[in-house]
Task: inverse folding
DNA sequence: CTCCAAACCTATAGCTTCTGGAGCATTAGA
DNA sequence: TCTAATGCTCCAGAAGCTATAGGTTTGGAG
């Protein structure tokens, strides 16, 4: 039996976050001690570790909820779990591409040395005038 | 004189967002018509375009507030504006690196074909068991 | 057994950056 | 003059937590 603090230390999920997950229905309400404190079993530790890992990978609470539901049915084909992961991979790649565009633009903007005045600062001018942009964001 | 709708169409910033920016102090409360509707001048259109552009680049409201304050003092040296942009470039690069790590891990996870059952699905197993990860996130 | 600090409880509010709706007022054009 | 489009304020919600206040329980030391 683990207290909520044990669970937190073992998974790296903060205590209020564990309670939040319970409220959101990601983990079931656990047993309570006589004094009304949460007492968890190993099963719940594993489930929380699963959630933690998936969150680290950037999956949404919704996706995780779906994956958890799927994992309750080991006999079903796993195409759906695959689809969720693949879909997420696509959004991760899109984010990377977008950030790289921003990186290029920021590099251009930052090319100023900071040794002149705001009046002719490239940072300020670039932000004020979109037409100076190379890309089409 | 532009109505809030004109401003919205010209900058691509949604109407409630414009009102939100006013509330947050990013743009000044404009003149009002006799019937209490907002009436903007060209100056405010430019300021909003500046904000829009900076938001597109992912700058926080706080950073934008700083840049706007700086742009009010064209005589000052622009090192500060530079610093903000450079700092942002660093965080953008960090985000890219992190997402690329996730990309690699997801690629590994997704290598399954979806033609078997949840019980032995790599997606589910990989999420349940952190030790299967290559990287150290 | 008693005591006390650490850990736990609930409830609520706040963070960030908007977005949307309800219910009513104004404006612009036919 | 009429009416559709647009605008107003206020409030709630989304995501995913985090923090605070004010109180209770637990576990170990003496």
Result:
């Amino acid at each position: 039996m683990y207290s909520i603090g044990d669970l937190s230390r073992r998974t790296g999920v903060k205590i209020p976050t564990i309670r939040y997950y319970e409220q959101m229905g990601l983990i079931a309400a656990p047993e309570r001690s006589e004094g009304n404190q949460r007492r968890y079993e190993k099963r719940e530790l594993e489930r929380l570790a699963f959630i933690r890992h998936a969150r680290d990978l950037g999956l949404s609470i919704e996706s995780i909820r779906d994956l958890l539901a799927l994992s309750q049915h080991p006999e079903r084909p796993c195409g759906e779990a695959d689809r969720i992961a693949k879909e997420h991979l696509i959004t991760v790649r899109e984010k990377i591409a977008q950030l790289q565009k921003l990186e290029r633009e920021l590099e251009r903007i930052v090319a100023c040395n900071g040794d002149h005045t705001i009046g002719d600062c490239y940072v300020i001018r670039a932000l004020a005038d979109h037409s100076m942009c190379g890309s089409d964001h």
